[in-house]
Amino acid sequence: MSNSCEALRYDDWEKYPDRRPKPRVPPIIEGGGPFATTRMSLPVYQFRHELLRGIASSRVTIIEGDTGCGKTTQVPQYILEDAVSHECCFITSD
Fold this sequence. Notes:
Blueprint: H1 10-15, H2 36-41, H3 48-57, H4 74-85
């Protein structure tokens, strides 16, 4: 390949694994960052480990909670943080 910006086909990744695109993940901020206190004050925070266990062990997980408890904002964040901590993950969106 002459141009480093040239797109690789999927089967080329088997031949050249070092050229496989790497996901860009921001570094984890020690102490949880500037919003840590707010995130920990949301009701869903106390269930984060239980939620992650349920998601990991089930094909479908239903999360129910009051409006404003953190379902929409924090649960996806917990999933992403957990995935990043395992270093090997695929995150997709349909």
